[in-house]
Amino acid sequence: MNFLASEENETAGLAIMQACNHQFRLERSLEKGKQILRLVQCNSEINGYPHQPQFQCITTEKELAKTEVEGEEIIFKVSAEGQSYNFYFGKEEENLQLLYENADGRKLNPESVGGMVGTMLCMFASSNGKESKNSAEFEWFDYTETELSCNVQAILHV
């Protein structure tokens, strides 16, 4: 992805999710005039089902890691081993830096919510409800399953 946020509401990156509002977002954004990369964990407490009149959903976001980044181009890598996720970033695929280690993947599948279809990986760009003429260009996405069936790796060049 090639992306520079021009406003603080603009963001782009990689999301790993299983249930609505249960996700990890490895995202680039703007904060106090500086380009940043952050890992956000999003969870929600759900009471009832969306089609019921008494349905309630309270969503919380927690910033797990943050660092300042330079340049427009960045590579993201996420590796999973069992329920543990590791998040990397950098300019060269052979020289990525660890941003966050051992994120708890069980946070993606809350027991209180049924009907999950599996974990999804996706690229995203958002202006979070505000008008924007900015864009993110995703050059490639690679998904590799390793020898162990529980160990997957996704690399996103952003």
TrEMBL record:
Superkingdom classification of source? Bacteria
Q: Which residues form the Beta-xylosidase C-terminal Concanavalin A-like domain?
A: 1-144
Q: Which Gene3D superfamilies match?
A: 2.60.120.200
Against Pfam families, the record matches this protein to: GH43_C2
- Could you tell me what this protein is called? Beta-xylosidase C-terminal Concanavalin A-like domain-containing protein
Species, as recorded: Neobacillus bataviensis
